[in-house]
Write a structure and sequence with these properties.
The structure is a single chain. The protein is of the alpha+beta class and about 170 residues long. The protein is about 30% helix and about 20% strand. It has four helices and six strands; from the N terminus they run ααβββαβββα. Strands 3-2-1-6-5-4 form a six-stranded antiparallel sheet, with helices on both faces.
């Protein structure tokens, strides 16, 4: 996919990686995240660091960020990198809301194949695939969800899931 009138000029189109390339990119990103975060306790600093370093090292990341649990079964947009995110998402609505409610990660190979408005919320029509994971605090409470979108179909798999679960443990330590 190349930049077009529908894709903002300042956003690079996604470029999928092979499994081996993903492993190497995640290993480097993880190393840098751990080194940068260190003993940091501030959740916002952890979120912005994770977003920045993952988007830097993984070229299929079109949008990356957190939706935060603010109570009342609503997620609000938190720190992210990419185009404008949805501001509010009700638990149970779309992929992020479903993951917030179930606390089970979800990989979507083609967002456009989902029922729009219920199974998927199209904040940006260029998002074609995504992975969403619950983010848990040390006390077991739901901080929110971590959402990554790609402008390519089928960008996410078990490699992404395994590495992201490992990276997101920084909130439960």
């Amino acid at each position: 996919m190349s930049a077009s009138a529908t894709m903002p000029y300042f956003i690079k189109p996604s470029v999928n990686l092979s499994a081996a390339e993903k492993e190497a990119a995640y290993a480097l990103a993880h190393q840098q995240i751990v080194a940068t975060i260190g003993d940091e306790t501030d959740e916002t600093i952890k979120m912005v660091t994770i977003n920045c370093l993952l988007k830097t090292h993984l070229p299929y990341y079109y949008w990356v960020g957190f939706y935060l649990n603010r109570g009342d079964e609503t997620l609000t947009v938190g720190p992210y990198q990419g185009t404008l995110g949805c501001l509010y998402i009700k638990f149970g609505r779309g992929v992020c809301g479903t993951v917030a409610l179930s606390q089970v990660p979800k990989i979507v190979g083609d967002c456009h194949a989902l029922a729009q408005g219920t199974e998927h919320i199209a904040c940006d029509p260029n998002s074609r695939s995504e992975i969403v994971l619950p983010v848990m605090r040390k006390d077991g409470s739901l901080l929110g969800v971590f959402d990554v979108d790609s402008s390519e179909v089928a960008s996410f798999d078990g490699v992404d899931l395994r590495w992201l679960e490992r990276i997101l443990t920084v909130f439960s330590l």
